[in-house]
Design brief:
Length: 201
């Protein structure tokens, strides 16, 4: 299993910059993300645009979008699928996580894999509190050509519009003591994450 941390967003609601490098509980959010997802994967990469040197301390491959104009997280997923096909042809699936989710579940990959197989699905996504989180999902490398066509030729941007085309398994996690898919989009969210960290980290 290849994991990709999607860290290529523009962070407009936080005034720009890299959300994953903001601090929660004395560490960058990305530190928390990597600590939780890396043990669940055979290899981990970062999807990020701009100067990759700012992530050099993580020792991970930094893979930029292959499409222009920041078309959103689907472009990051495509970049990860392309990287996997080229560098790890033995891998059939990629799991993606958001770079601003410090409380990711430690059983994320195992449950997504198991439910995809049980449901005979092509894709799997995470859910909590009655909402799906399509950025956090399991993707078949074999679908990368279809995804590229949807992005380039159709201008598709919304993840759930693309996943709706395929057999999709949805796996739900509890939100006690915290929602494992809480993400820090704003300064207020960072304050909330600090309060949540005592229970979750």
């Amino acid at each position: 299993m290849i994991g990709v941390v999607l860290a290529g967003g523009l962070a407009r609601r936080m005034g720009g910059g890299d959300k994953p490098l903001r601090q929660v509980a004395g560490q960058a959010i990305l530190d928390h993300v990597v600590a939780r997802i890396a043990p669940q994967c055979d290899a981990l990469i970062l999807n990020a645009n701009g100067d990759p040197a700012r992530f050099a301390g993580y020792g991970l491959p930094v893979v930029p979008d292959t499409l222009d104009d920041y078309p959103g997280p689907l472009a990051g997923v495509l970049a990860a699928l392309d990287w996997t096909a080229e560098n790890r042809p033995d891998a059939n699936h990629v799991v993606s996580v958001a770079g601003d989710c410090p409380f990711l579940p430690r059983d994320l990959v195992s449950r997504l894999k198991a439910e995809r197989v049980a449901a005979n699905a092509e894709l799997a996504v995470a859910a909590s509190d009655g909402r799906s989180h399509p950025v956090i999902g399991l993707w078949a490398v074999a679908l990368r050509g279809d995804l590229r066509k949807a992005l380039v030729e159709e201008g598709l941007r919304k993840i759930d519009l693309w996943t709706a085309r395929y057999a999709l398994a949805t796996v739900t996690w509890p939100v006690d003591p915290v929602d494992p898919f809480f993400n820090a989009n704003t300064a207020d969210d960072l304050d909330e994450a600090e309060r949540m960290a005592a229970a979750a980290l």
